[in-house]
Amino acid sequence: MTIMIKIVLACLAIFAGIFAVKFLLFPAVYFIFNMQSGQLKVVEQFTTLMFIGLGYYLYVKYYEKRRPDELTFRASHLFYGAVSGAALISVTSLLLFYLGYYEVVSFQGLEGIPIVGSTILVAAMLEEFLFRGVLFRVIEAHVGTLFSLSFVATLFGLLHLFNENTTVVTAFSVTLLGVFWGGIYVLTRNIWVVGLNHAAWNFSIFSTGIPLSGNEDWRAVAPFESIYNGPLLLTGGEFGPEDSIINIIVLLISVVVIFYFAQKIRLLSALAKIPRRLSWKRRFR
Questions:
Q1: Of 21, 24, 19, residue with least CA distance to 41
Q2: In 3-state terms, what secondary structure has residue 184?
Q3: Which tens digit of pLDDT belongs to each residue from 194-213?
Q4: Where are the alpha helices (DSSP H) in the chain?
Q5: Residue 272: pLDDT above 60?
Q6: Where does residue 279 rank: exposed (0-12), middle (13-18), buried (19+ CB within 10 A)?
Q7: Which end of the chain has a smaller Cβ tally under 10 Å, C or N?
Q8: Do residues 67 and 40 lie in contact, with contact meaning Cβ atoms separated by under 8 Å?
Q9: Does the pLDDT at position 5 exceed 50?
Q10: What is the dihedral of CA 20, 119, 247, 261, to 10 degrees?
Q11: CB-side exposure of 187: number of CA atoms within 13 Å?
Q12: What is the pLDDT of residues 18-60, one digit of tens each?
């Protein structure tokens, strides 16, 4: 019951921030200025992100009564988080472009980047606040790291099956992504780092003009117009490169590396809280 109360209150705090921006603050702004420009939409997205962080901060400070260290800004860590996210998915995408399974048709311009880019950033950060900042962290505190990681990653994968153009591969590939981002949070204990990794990953896919997690809508405003052809297991098909077997292999290697370092620096001490029948702690001594 304590777990559920914490999760519900944390989610309410986060969504209260979103509600305040989307239904109170910016409707008033649009009414006063009698306009809905692209620039204002971008400002709205960044304001939404600020209020998401504020809601989480207030929950941690006044309900959990502790300092929210997971919200600490470290410029170098944020930079590495974003660059590594973009670089990792680019291994798959660039290889598929090189092999001819993805092909650039034309350059469409940069006009769509501000609105779509800010939307991608807010969506990725919101998912990380909810899945890693709330669900993973709260469950981990009660039952341990590996159980929490497995449960939240599985839930993350299952919920993405509601996206368009999913296949039998999607549940596994997105669950593996959940393990990957959960692992980054375990290593860094910083929501901004894992959120920027997630956002940079998604933005890299969008910018190439290839479907992003089954979403075809943004391809029309992507900087590049691209097409894909070839075996579904190789290209990822209409879901995008996340379903590619190349990406799955890259993620598996990355997860192994992450948990190797997690073991080395003893960040899995919370395993001691797992019931004996679930515990793997001897493997990490």
A1: 21
A2: helix
A3: 999 999 999 999 999 999 99
A4: 2-19, 26-33, 38-59, 75-99, 113-128, 137-143, 145-159, 170-188, 191-208, 232-235, 245-264
A5: no
A6: middle
A7: N
A8: no
A9: yes
A10: -50
A11: 22
A12: 999 999 999 988 888 777 777 889 999 999 999 999 999 999 9
Rounded CA separation 27/142 (Å): 41
Handedness of CA 241, 243, 249, 252 (dihedral sign): positive
pLDDT beyond 90 at 157: yes
Q: Which two tokens stand for residue 180?
A: 């990957």
180 HSE (CA, 13 A, CB side): 25
Question: At CB < 8 A and 24+ separation, what contacts does 84-90 make?
Answer: 84/197, 84/200, 85/196, 85/197, 85/198, 85/199, 85/200, 85/201, 85/204, 86/200, 86/201, 86/203, 86/204, 88/201, 88/250, 88/251, 88/254, 89/201, 89/204, 89/205, 89/241, 89/242, 89/247, 90/204
Is the Cα torsion angle 145, 146, 152, 156 positive or negative in sign?
Answer: positive
Spatial separation of the C-alpha atoms in residues 27 and 33, rounded to whole Å: 10
CA gap 35, 40 in Å, rounded: 9
Under the phi-then-psi rule, with left for phi > 0, alpha for psi from -120 to 50, and beta for the rest, what region is 213?
left
- Label residue 236 left, alpha or beta by phi (over 0 means left) and psi (-120 to 50 means alpha): left
For 203-255, give the DSSP string.
HHHHHHTS-BTTB-GGGGGSSEEEEE-S-HHHH-GGG-GGGSHHHHHHHHHHH
Greatest CA separation for the chain = 63
Closest CA to 258 of 194, 172, 164, 174: 194
Q: Which two tokens stand for residue 106?
A: 């034309």
Least Cα distance to 176 among 97, 278, 253, 284 occurs for 253
